[in-house]
Design brief:
heterodimer; A: 466 residues; alpha/beta; 24% helix; B: alpha/beta; Rossmann fold; 12 strands
Chain lengths: 466, 257
């Protein structure tokens, strides 16, 4: 797999948008009435409405965070908080309206479905419009649905986990999501069950000024395994959109959960996401997190190592082109002894693009024999681009081994001369370097996603040299 | 007319960082011949090598470079490479993340020399064997963590795969022990053919003994001050540059070791 310089394309590939087919839309702006309307429209139980309203209060009480990227461009009053594109969830592909189907066709979703034959759920604005579950998954007792159905169909189970990993008052944007959440995925894997094929969901924002607030809850029971993949695209609109998701994961003892994201929002989206996993004894959590798109991303997948022998990994890659700021990183909170974490971050900046690595390592007083490894490497493609590292460490037990390595490198004149002296053009040489730099990340992706990532990188790299 | 097929440099003047390094170099390397370029440190040998390959940091202020009947004075490095010019670097640059195999395939593709995957791997394996390079290097990142000798052998490996029409070896022999030097020299000897010119830049007679140059040129203060047959290199090996350049050139660091 390599970036073919010849196929570089100028336009944001997913920059098409369909005729608005929404059937239900709340008013612009965030009010208690909007929250009530969302909840009523979904026929939610009272506790969820109350939860939402309380979260709305937290959201209002909280100041805008100023410690990270510039969020001053967000206008909360100029956003639609809920849009439902079709009146009910479709069970079969044939029932999906043609305009939406065309969108999916262009995103390659039917192909993905054919390839994986697993559950595919696609989020179109706020609701999941197409969703299928392979029968044997259901036979194994695996639930894979949108989050609203999860609440409807498995209320007790849902309620016992929802909001327990990321409380609604965790941060301003988690509070916002908790108030207006819609869609997202609900995954439950019973004890000892291995879901061999990745579960996939596609999200995209279609309407102008649309906020998207999906909510994902994954519960992996003891000794189970699941790999969940989301990919995100949004068409180009002139005004800015907001995406603020919350992802909660519980890995019970001995479970293994991998969560893969390829984020390619168009360059006017504020992408502010809270992701957190609770990892119990001898369980393993892996966040594989790629950020290519968006105007601003703030996302720090977190791992709480709660039980002895728990292990967490965060492997992230970020690309920031002109006008983009990828403020990404990881958090590893070691609560229990004999826990290990490994954080690897790779970022590339181009033009006026800016990448930041922001990491938080915390070791509780009772967590001894802890091993932590952090490695972040940044690559700058020109003199305008910028990269910063903000590592925070908070270690309260002396029996800890921490390795921390960081590097910033530039694609240098000598490197390019060496490569061009073998016949490669500067564009081809840069593409090879970029591909190579992301290779540790790409090799963790399923083939289809690796191909897609390289294709997206190719588009992003357009005009990066000369 | 074999001379027009090779390299012809006329009255080449080159500056870098505002300083003139080459002050009117004339040189011809016809296809099929091996020429050696010697000279004290700082005489401009590496500048000439980089200028012939098209390094953007070196500015040609006058004169011309012709190759294969074309004026290449103002061509970029990749354009020169596609015409068949190859530079074996004195200090090969590491490219982390790009494996030897991927780099070679990309380079061959860019020069229109792409081979089907199986043929490519076969050729690569054979060349690596000749150069005594461990097969594991195929998937190592290019020059990343290579020892000095490994880097030089990897340069010759690239040369063997790319089959240039002009090979410039910039101190490929320096820093090599006797065995490594023989492997590299054998590698170059095997690649010699009537269609390829070779310009060997060196401080040492050792490699010339094995490569048997047709001509030897001495570069001093940015000019070719002497040219002759292989005999000239032997004189320098024995008596240093003093008999040719005069006493002011015979400072200790200017002497071949």
């Amino acid at each position: 797999m390599s970036i073919e310089a010849a196929s570089l394309s100028k336009d944001y590939e997913y920059g098409f948008h369909d005729i608005d087919v929404s059937v239900f839309k709340t008013e612009k702006g965030l009010t208690e009435e909007v929250v009530r309307a969302i909840s009523a429209h979904k026929n939610e139980p009272l506790w969820m409405l109350e939860y939402r309203l309380k979260a709305l209060q937290h959201f209002r009480d909280r100041p805008m965070p100023t410690w990270g990227a510039d969020l001053s461009g967000i206008d909360f009053d100029n956003i639609y908080y809920y849009i439902k594109p079709v009146d009910e969830q479709k069970r079969s592909w044939d029932d999906v309206p043609d305009s939406i189907k065309q969108t999916f066709d262009r995103l390659g979703i039917p192909q993905a479905e054919r390839k994986f034959l697993a559950g595919v759920s696609a989020q179109y604005d706020s609701e999941v419009v197409y969703h299928s579950i392979r029968e044997d998954l259901a036979k194994q007792g695996v639930f894979f649905s949108d989050c609203d159905s999860g609440l409807r169909e498995h209320e007790e189970l849902f309620r016992s986990y929802f909001g327990t990993i990321i409380p609604s008052n965790d941060n301003k944007f988690a509070a916002l999501n908790s108030a207006v959440w819609s869609g997202g995925s609900f995954v439950y894997v019973p004890k000892g069950v291995r879901v061999e094929i990745p579960l996939q969901a596609y999200f995209r924002i279609n309407s102008d000024n649309m906020g998207q607030f999906e909510r994902t809850l994954i519960i992996a029971e003891e000794g189970s395994y699941v790999h969940y993949i989301e990919g995100c695209t949004a068409p180009n609109y002139s005004s800015d959109s907001l995406h603020s998701a919350v992802v909660e994961i519980v890995a019970h003892p001995g479970a293994h959960v991998r969560y893969t994201t390829i984020q390619n929002w168009s360059n006017n989206v504020y992408n502010l996401v809270t992701k957190r996993a609770m990892v119990y004894a001898h369980a393993r959590m892996e966040w594989i997190d790629g950020n290519l798109g968006s105007k601003v991303t703030m996302k720090y997948p977190s791992i709480y190592l709660m039980g002895e022998g728990a292990h967490g990994e965060v492997l992230s890659a970020a690309f920031a082109g002109t006008g983009q700021h990828q403020d990404a990183g990881a958090k590893a909170i070691h609560v229990a002894p004999h826990t290990t974490s490994n954080i690897v971050s790779r970022s590339i900046s181009k033009g006026s693009g800016r990448t930041s690595y922001r990491g938080h390592i915390k070791v509780h007083p009772k967590a001894f024999d802890v091993h932590i490894n952090v490695r972040c490497d940044a690559l700058l493609l020109d003199t305008e681009s910028r990269s910063d590292t903000y590592p925070y460490m908070d270690v309260e037990n002396p029996d800890v081994t921490i390795g921390h390595e960081a590097s910033v490198s530039k694609v240098g004149e000598e490197q390019l001369f060496y490569m061009t002296s073998r016949g490669l053009s500067e564009e081809e040489a840069t593409a090879l370097i970029v591909n190579g730099f992301f290779e540790p990340f790409v090799k963790e992706l399923p083939m289809e996603y690796a191909v897609e990532l390289n294709r997206l990188l190719t588009a992003s790299m357009e005009g990066s040299v000369g | 007319m074999p001379r027009s097929e090779g390299l012809t440099v006329k009255n080449l003047r080159v500056t870098t960082a505002g300083k003139e390094i080459l002050s009117g170099v004339d040189l011809s390397v016809p296809a099929g011949e091996v020429h050696a370029l010697m000279g004290p440190n700082g005489s401009g040998k590496s500048t000439l090598a980089h200028t012939l390959m098209g390094h953007p940091a070196y500015t040609i202020t006058s004169g011309s470079i012709h190759f294969a009947g074309q004026d290449i004075t103002h061509l970029r490095a990749d354009q020169r490479a596609r015409l068949g010019i190859f530079l074996s670097f004195q200090y090969p640059v590491a490219v982390p993340g790009v494996t030897v195999v991927n780099f070679l395939r990309a380079a061959m593709r860019s020069q229109g020399k792409e081979l089907p995957a199986r043929e490519f791997m076969k050729a690569l394996t054979a060349e690596m064997e000749k150069l005594k390079i461990d097969p594991a290097f195929r998937s190592r990142y290019l020059n990343d963590g290579f020892s000095g000798g490994e880097k030089k052998r990897c340069e010759i490996l690239q040369m063997a795969m790319l089959k240039p029409r002009l090979a410039i070896l910039d101190e490929t022999d320096s820093g090599l022990d006797v065995d490594a030097l023989r492997i590299v020299a054998d590698g170059v000897s095997q690649l010699r053919n009537p269609d390829m010119g070779v310009l060997v830049i060196t401080h040492y007679y050792r490699i010339l003994e094995q490569l048997q140059p047709d001509y030897v040129h001495i570069l001093h203060a940015g000019k070719i001050v002497a040219s002759g047959e292989a005999e000239l290199a032997r004189t320098i090996e024995k008596s240093g540059y003093e008999p040719i350049l005069g006493p002011e050139a015979a400072s200790p660091e200017a002497l071949p070791v």
